[in-house]
Specification:
Helix content is 69%, strand content 2%. It is mostly helical.
Amino acid sequence: MAKFTVPGLSDSEGVRVAEVLQNRLSAYNDLHLTLKHVHWNVVGPNFIGVHEMIDPQVDAVRGFADDVAERIAALGSSPKGTAGAIEKDRSWDDYSVGRDTAQAHLAALDLVYDGVIGDCRKAISEVGEIDPITEDLLIGQTRDLEKFQWFVRAHLENSAGTLAHEGARTERQAADEAR
């Protein structure tokens, strides 16, 4: 590990912010792989709309991972972008839906976004006490993730504002309810 961090932070503050960011890096790497999995495995009448909606999300989330990794390096730490790092940092289950309908995948993906966004908000709160630059980075990324979730939910919402998978607690349950 480097013997420096960004100006204005102590070495220990830089290390703590980098640790928080490492969790985000692993989550973003997992998310862009999950999104690509959905892209490849979605079927049914709404296939093309969902297939084409997902790729820009993949690209954006890959960009988030790159920005977070570069911030970790600027803080004097070493970003870990390996499959092993994802597994080590993971506090969530692996995506559980294979080849399935657009509705099933989108309902499951909505729960994935719930988890990622919730964890981003916790990270924002923690780093906001230490480093407003990192806080700003995470706020912008979270704003975009919330927009992506809105895109997903628009496919699942009825005219009364109810989601097709309302109350589902697992990806599999959400997929089953949305089908």
